[in-house]
Amino acid sequence: MNKRGVSPVIATVLLIGIVIALGLVVFLWFRGFTQEAITKFSGENIQLVCGDVQFSANYQSGQLALQNAGNVPIYSFSIQMNSAGGSYSTGDITTLTGNWPKTGLRSGGTFGGALNFPSGTTVTSLLVVPILRGSLSNGQEQSYTCTSQGQTVSVSGS
């Protein structure tokens, strides 16, 4: 009859520790489901900034002309090349042309240059999609493609 149990104070401390540990596990598990927001312009979510992107694209005589008509700097462009057979290939403008500015297109900036199409393909149209550069909460920069802002450009005589 000399049985001893855990004192109520120690039992309470153990229960609180277990609850905190379980809460931390659940928090870290849920955190894996969410994507960290990329921000631009004093903390504004970059997905919202994509709606403010304005640019014009034109392809004529083998030259692609781009102009940033908005107030949002455009870091790069993704180019989807559609061919007559219905197939397409996608590339970044930095790989398709050799003279893309490293800083991208600032407000009012323009770019003109020839694109290096894959050999043996007849490109009929281009889908030009802007890519923005934003910051993560830890200060690292990351690119974000504004897929909703793409423009289709007709290609003739490529």
Give a summary of the structure in a few sentences.
The protein is α+β, with helices and mostly antiparallel strands. Helices cover 20% and strands 35% of the residues.
What does this structure look like?
- The relative contact order is 0.19.
- Strand 8 (123-135) and strand 9 form a beta hairpin.
- The protein has 3 helices and 10 strands; from the N terminus they run αββαββββαββββ.
- The mean pLDDT is 82.
- The protein is an alpha+beta fold.
- The strands form 3 sheets. Strands 5, 6, 8, 9 and 10 form a 5-stranded antiparallel sheet that branches. It has a 3-stranded antiparallel sheet with strand order 3-4-7, with no helix packed on it. The protein has a two-stranded antiparallel ribbon with strand order 1-2.
- The chain has a single domain (39-154), classed as Immunoglobulin-like (Sandwich), CATH 2.60.40.
